[in-house]
Amino acid sequence: MKVIFAGTPEFAATALDAILAAGFEVPLVLTQPDRPAGRGLQLQASAVKQLAIKHHIPVAQPISLKLDGKHPNIAAEAHELLKATPHDVIVVAAYGLILPSSILSIPRLGCLNIHGSLLPRWRGAAPIHRAIEAGDAETGITIMQMELGLDTGPMLLKQAIPIQERDNTGSLHDKLANLGGKMIVEALQKLRLGPLPATVQPDQGVCYAAKISKDEALLNFDLNASVLERKIRAFNPFPAAHANIDGLSIKIWRADVLPIAPSSHSIQNGQILEVNAEGILIACDNGKSVLRVLELQKPGGKRLPVKDFLQGFPLRVGQHFTV
């Protein structure tokens, strides 16, 4: 079986690596154009492109696949390349471009998508972030037959994993990437023997995982500490939760939630209640909960546990973190 692969970030590269390791022939890889990255903003190839080059696989990087879009000539070239490249199926994982119907209809066995959620929950761009942020107990991988709708296609394989108490987007991403690689290999092996049973997605339980914006990562201490703790994990490693103090934006990488004793004193949201080597205690939700910050980073500095952070950036009781 010949597999054209379309994907861009590390999540997709893990799947491509698994497909190659399983012995499937990959005659072509589609990935996003090189992007500026790093302090020098040098053009950098995607993780998928780097892996494809390592395995001497031809790579195409069209900026559009829509024949009626802004770049019809580029899209037409991509269509002709796909038609001219012998293959049976296209596998898509975090590609970043929408596949129009004119592309979906090209492969003999259609297009399969590796999606990082238990569909129909968390359709869209940021399923891993949103599952953590929402406090979901589990997530997983769905292998889906692609159609025109956004992550709406019939489900071919589905497997759940628990979201652990300390999972952040980075750790959960790695678990799901490895699971996705195993599941797409299983799906392709079964597809070689015949069509896979497909389950139509239910109408109930549909929700949308909107793309993450940097503005969301600014912590609002009017919220409950448990909500903030989930946001901190959801936005680790990107875009990194942060809060302002003394005119500086401090990134907060790790925290937990402590019970709070009733107090007769007026407590303001964002107020520092205690500072010690174990953590910085911050009042939330009108004094109803406390966030204990465990790892921080000042501008231009390194991520540090609170004990080391305080040596170079002392904080005191009564100071306020603000939006």
Automatic annotation (TrEMBL):
InterPro entries: Fmt, Formyl_trans_C, Formyl_trans_C_sf, Formyl_transf_N, Formyl_transf_N_sf, Formyl_transferase-like_C_sf, Met-tRNA-FMT_C, Met-tRNA-FMT_N. It catalyses: L-methionyl-tRNA(fMet) + (6R)-10-formyltetrahydrofolate = N-formyl-L-methionyl-tRNA(fMet) + (6S)-5,6,7,8-tetrahydrofolate + H(+). (6S)-5,6,7,8-tetrahydrofolate binds at S117, L118, L119, P120. GO terms for molecular function: methionyl-tRNA formyltransferase activity. Residues 1-188 form the Formyl transferase N-terminal domain. Gene3D superfamilies: Formyl transferase, C-terminal domain, Formyl transferase, N-terminal domain. GO terms for cellular component: cytosol. It holds the Pfam family Formyl_trans_C. Its EC number is 2.1.2.9. Residues 211-313 form the Formyl transferase C-terminal domain. Transmembrane segments: none annotated. Keywords: Protein biosynthesis, Transferase. Belongs to the Fmt family. Attaches a formyl group to the free amino group of methionyl-tRNA(fMet). The formyl group appears to play a dual role in the initiator identity of N-formylmethionyl-tRNA by promoting its recognition by IF2 and preventing the misappropriation of this tRNA by the elongation apparatus. This is Methionyl-tRNA formyltransferase. It comes from Undibacterium fentianense. The gene is fmt.
